[in-house]
């Protein structure tokens, strides 16, 4: 070990050699060995200045004790600090000098007039030492740590040149302890977050603002049937059903504007099927850290299906099982907001009052149900067939293609075949025309239906759509 007075050219070289050795030791320390490694480093630092006790304190942004490490020769009490303790309570009147980066060496404390608080601080740490050296470590203008070296055996002669040699050694130890400690805290926090994420039933993902997955939780991997390596660095939109991607893109835009956003989307499941999930998104934005979108994914597939079944029942006419008037109105509103084309057919059962009068209302209900079945079976899946009211029915074809010209004849023929001539229908057709004019098409189809009745019933008539 170097003697404090041996300030020759080899001293700086020895400091570099010792410092490099300690840096390797601190960088290699893990959570279990950090205190043991810090003990060895502080022992070397103390021995270098002929001290028998050492304390390193890491400070937070408020200059309060965030963490600390200490060392003492065998048989001597170790110095200590209290977490959260302000700098002034730790170093007393030396604090202003430390803030401007000046080391405070006191070779003989008996010659210094100390305040009562400073003496009490010394007593707390095992008594007033004979000599002390307090070395600050700054990053920019911020004081991030302090090293305190004490000799209890007697005064020390610490020249300015010697202090200058000690300062980089102490700074190295403080910085490396701080870096290693922060790394261990980060590792512990990461492990804790990983454990929490593993137990979360909901999926969790961290996205870049443009929707690229930076991290996926184990539960999200399980929900999608894909490992994290396959999810991360991919677009979250790839997990969303193509039918829902435009809405998901709008959701990300809303989040980017600074708000929370939620929606229900179909997300790919473990077998490649689409499952309904509730997505909740929030923008996480902090200074110095890239923005991320936090996405929570909750499987709501079964609930959604139940709601859809309930909604379907609510929208269904109880007698005919076709869509009811309310469902038709909503459908017309949706169609009117699209750029599609549409054809509308208005159907009325011929002489239905006579059926009720002759055969009774029970048979009349059976007839209506049979007519509805024939009409519903004559249209494509996805088209609208609804009971408009009483013995009137409405059919709407969206983007009808070749279906438009055949619709009236097909509806009349389907009722004839189903009812065997017992009853017939008159049908009015309008279109194809622009969907934005859907309600006008419906009025014209109603007029066409009356034209069919005037022409002898059991037939159909067509009116062209208005120019649009």
Q: What would you say this structure looks like, in words?
A:
This protein has 468 residues and is α+β, with helices and mostly antiparallel strands. It has 3 domains: 9-188, GAF domain (Beta-Lactamase), CATH 3.30.450; 200-304, 2-Layer Sandwich (Beta-Lactamase), CATH 3.30.450.20; 316-463, Reverse transcriptase/Diguanylate cyclase domain (Alpha-Beta Plaits), CATH 3.30.70. 42% of the residues lie in helices and 24% in strands. The strands form 3 sheets. A 5-stranded antiparallel beta sheet has the order 2-1-5-4-3. It has a 5-stranded antiparallel beta sheet with strand order 7-6-10-9-8, with helices on both faces. It has a 5-stranded mixed beta sheet with strand order 12-13-11-14-15, sandwiched between helices. A hairpin with a 2-residue loop joins strand 4 (131-139) and strand 5. The N and C termini lie far apart (97 Å).
In percent, how much strand structure appears in the residues? 15-25%
Would you tell me the structural class of the helices and strands?
alpha+beta
Task: Count up the helices.
Answer: 15
Q: Could you give the count of β-strands?
A: 15
Largest sheet: spatial strand order:
2-1-5-4-3
Radius of gyration: 42 Å
Oligomeric organization of the protein chains: single chain
Q: Uncertain regions: pLDDT < 50 for 5+ in a row?
A: 1-12
Sketch the major β-sheet: 5 strands, antiparallel
Question: What is the number of domains?
Answer: 3
The CATH architecture classification of the largest domain is 2-Layer Sandwich
**What is the mean predicted local confidence, pLDDT?**
83
Briefly note the CATH topology name of the largest domain: Beta-Lactamase
The CATH superfamily of the largest domain turns out to be: GAF domain
Shape: rod-shaped
Q: Spell out the helices and strands N to C.
A: HHEEHHEHEEHEEHHHEEEHHEHHEEHEHE
What fraction, in percent, of the residue positions are helical? 40-55%
- Report the CATH C-level class of the largest domain: Alpha Beta
Terminus-to-terminus distance: 97 Å
């Amino acid at each position: 070990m170097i003697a404090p007075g041996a300030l020759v050219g080899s001293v700086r070289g020895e400091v570099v050699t010792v410092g490099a050795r300690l840096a390797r030791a601190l960088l290699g320390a893990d959570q279990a060995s950090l205190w043991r490694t810090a003990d060895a480093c502080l022992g070397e630092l103390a021995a270098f200045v002929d001290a028998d006790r050492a304390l390193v304190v890491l400070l937070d942004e408020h200059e309060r004790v965030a963490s600390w490490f200490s060392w003492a020769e065998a048989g001597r009490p170790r110095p200590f600090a209290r977490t959260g303790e302000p700098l002034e309570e730790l170093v007393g009147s030396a604090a202003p000098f430390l803030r401007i980066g000046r080391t405070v060496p006191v070779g003989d404390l008996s010659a210094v007039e100390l305040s009562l608080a400073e003496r009490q601080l010394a007593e707390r740490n095992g008594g007033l030492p004979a000599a002390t050296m307090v070395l600050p470590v700054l990053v920019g203008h911020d004081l991030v740590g302090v090293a305190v070296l004490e000799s209890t055996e007697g005064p020390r002669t610490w020249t300015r040149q010697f202090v200058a040699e000690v300062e980089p050694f102490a700074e190295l130890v403080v910085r490396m302890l701080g870096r290693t400690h922060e790394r261990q805290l980060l590792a512990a926090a990461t492990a804790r977050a990983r454990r929490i994420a593993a137990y979360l039933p909901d999926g969790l993902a961290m996205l870049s603002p443009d929707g690229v997955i930076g991290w996926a939780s184990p539960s999200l991997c399980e929900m999608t049937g894909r490992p994290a390596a396959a999810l991360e660095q991919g677009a979250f939109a790839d997990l969303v059903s193509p039918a829902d991607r435009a809405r998901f893109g709008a959701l990300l835009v809303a989040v980017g504007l600074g708000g929370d956003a939620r929606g229900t989307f179909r997300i790919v499941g473990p077998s490649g099927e689409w499952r309904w999930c509730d997505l909740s998104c929030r923008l996480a934005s902090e200074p110095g850290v890239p923005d991320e979108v936090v996405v929570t994914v909750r499987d709501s597939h079964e609930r959604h299906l139940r709601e859809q079944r309930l909604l379907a029942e609510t929208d269904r006419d109880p007698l005919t099982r076709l869509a009811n008037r309310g469902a038709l109105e909503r459908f017309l509103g949706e169609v009117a907001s699209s750029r599609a084309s549409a054809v509308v057919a208005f159907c009325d059962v011929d002489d239905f009052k006579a059926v009720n009068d002759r055969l009774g209302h029970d048979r009349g209900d059976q007839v209506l149900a049979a007519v509805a079945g024939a009409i519903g079976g004559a249209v494509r899946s996805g088209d609208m067939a609804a009971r408009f009211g009483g013995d009137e029915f409405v059919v709407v074809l969206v983007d009808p293609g070749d279906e438009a010209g055949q619709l009236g004849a097909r509806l009349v023929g389907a009722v004839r075949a189903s009812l065997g001539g017992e009853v017939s229908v008159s049908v009015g057709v309008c279109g194809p025309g622009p969907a934005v004019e859907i309600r006008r098409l419906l009025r014209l189809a109603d007029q066409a239906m009356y034209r069919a009745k005037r022409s002898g019933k059991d037939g159909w008539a067509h009116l062209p759509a208005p120019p649009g």
